[in-house]
Every structure is written in C-alpha cells, then in structure tokens.
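ok new one. same drill as before - structure tokens go in, u give me an amino acid for every spot. 302 of them this time. try not to just spam alanines like last time pls lmao
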C-alpha cells in the first residue's frame, strides 16, 4: 500500500474538501482525486461519499481512517528516526526563507552550498517575515532570507536585534492584462490605477503592507477584489481580465504569461532581500560559511 496515498486520505478526511486538501498537500485536485480512486480500487471499497457540495467519509472510510492515521504516524516516526541518524553524521544548518525563492536564486545558492560542503545539510523553513524573525529569536533558525522595504516598521525595530547580509534587490511593477489601456506604457503612475480592481498577496504579508502604504501616499485605498498566497493565481486572474496587481518584478516575470504585461510603477518602490542572523550569538562555522557564500554571490543568480 502506498503510504503517501494514506497520508492524502487522512488530510482529505480531515478537511472534507478537495481544494483545501490539495493546497495543504501541494498537489493538484485532479492528482488527489486520482490517488484516492486508486486507493479505493486497491482496497476494494468506497472511502468517500461525494456530492456537489461536500466530501464525507463512507462507512468503510470511517473504519479505514484510524488505520490510515496509524500508518501515517508510524511512517513519520520512521522518517524522523532515520533523519536523527543522518543528522548525527551531518551538520544541519537551519535556514528560513520567504516563500518566493526560485526567482531570486535562493534555492540555487542553497543547492550550491550543499554541493560545495558535502558534510553539511540545509534544513529549510518557509514563512513570512514576522515568522522568520521570531524563529531566529527562538533559536529555531540560524539564518533567514527576509524581504525589507523602507516603510517596514519591523525592520527599523530589528536593526539592533539582527545583523544582515545584503542579497538581492527588486522593484514594484504593475501587472496588467495585455489589452489594458495602460499596457503599452513603459511606466505608469501608481495613482493612475486608483479606480482598478486589485488582486493582491494576502493581508499580513510584506507585499500587502507595502502596497497599502504606497497607495495611501498617493491618496487612495485600493479596491481589493482578491487576496491569495499564490502568485500564479494572481497572474492568471489578471490575464483573464479580473483586475490588476502590483508585484515585485522578478517573481512576476518568472510567473508571467503571454496574457499579461509588466509595467514599471512611479514613484519607484524597491525592496531588498537580506540574510538575517541574531546579533549576540556567534554564527556556527556552517552558518558563517553560508554567509560568506551569500556575500560572494552578489545578486541572485550570479
């Protein structure tokens, strides 16, 4: 029996919703549906009673659930035990990062570091800026890639608490449908977008706070039609004419489709990604080697 399918069954049984379960599992709804049907075929029973509005456990599903939970728990315990053995042989460096990693080359620099340091392994934690700072304070992380912007109060309050190594910079762009009246411009004034519907990253994120602050300075409150964590969803909705967005150029360019255009915004709004570490705590040799690698790398992708 495929343990991963058991884990997916447990998540779906908990959420009773294919969309929520697939988001938690980081797979598509169609893949999750295929896996559940395959598990049902293997077991010879129907595990869920499906309707247009809900997904409920069948009688067989209720019987199978505690066994699937046990299989999942034992598998997790086994993997943790094996990981402990491996960590006794390797030095583990705990690093945190903002969710947008690939467009800034963060995954690449981590892979190169492990390749150049075969006795060390990076354990990666993804979170927003506040989560990462708190994890550093609690010694759950040694280093963290965090985005800063000039209006970020958390940055100013943490200047004495954290040391930083500059990594990369980016600038805000407007993401517009290809047929938008402003799509042919090289630059657009932020105030020209005041009457648009906005599709934004979620409240609580650095980007959301940055955009609200920038719009306030220009004298308007954005009419937010959608908030979501996935940039690809925002880009797709923009391309379908559902509104406009404001994103950083590098991730927007990485995700862009032929249905959208990226236009520079005036006044220029920039952010900087830095590697944070806690002052007053001497970095481990591995952490120092990683900081040196970041310093040598310059901008992402170098």
């Amino acid at each position: 029996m495929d343990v991963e399918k058991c884990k997916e069954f447990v998540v779906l049984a908990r959420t009773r919703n294919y969309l929520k379960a697939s988001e938690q599992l980081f797979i598509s709804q169609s893949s999750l549906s295929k896996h559940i049907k395959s598990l049902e075929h293997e077991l010879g029973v129907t595990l869920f009673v499906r309707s247009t509005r809900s997904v409920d456990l069948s009688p067989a599903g209720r019987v199978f659930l505690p066994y699937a939970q046990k299989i999942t728990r034992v598998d997790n315990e086994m993997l943790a035990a094996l990981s402990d053995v491996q960590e006794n042989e390797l030095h583990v460096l705990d690093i945190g990062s903002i969710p947008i990693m690939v467009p800034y080359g963060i995954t690449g620099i981590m892979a190169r570091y492990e390749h150049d340091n075969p006795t060390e392994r990076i354990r990666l934690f993804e979170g927003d800026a506040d989560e990462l700072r708190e994890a550093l304070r609690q010694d759950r992380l040694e280093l963290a890639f965090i985005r800063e912007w000039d209006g970020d109060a958390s940055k100013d309050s943490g200047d004495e608490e954290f040391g930083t190594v500059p990594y990369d910079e980016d600038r805000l762009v407007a993401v517009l449908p290809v047929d938008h009246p402003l799509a042919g411009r090289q630059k657009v004034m932020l105030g020209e977008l005041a009457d648009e519907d906005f599709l934004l990253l979620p409240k609580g994120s650095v980007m959301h706070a940055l955009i609200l602050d920038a719009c306030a300075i220009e004298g308007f409150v954005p009419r937010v039609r959608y908030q979501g964590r996935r940039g690809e969803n925002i880009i797709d909705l923009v391309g379908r004419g559902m509104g406009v967005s404001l994103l950083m150029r590098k991730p927007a360019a990485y995700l862009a489709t032929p249905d959208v255009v990226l236009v520079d915004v005036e006044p220029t709004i920039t952010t900087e990604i830095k590697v944070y570490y806690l002052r007053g705590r001497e970095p481990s040799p591995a952490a120092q080697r990683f900081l040196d690698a970041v310093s040598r790398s310059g901008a992402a992708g170098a």
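The first strand starts at residue 48 and ends at 50. and btw DSSP finds eleven helices and twelve strands in the chain.
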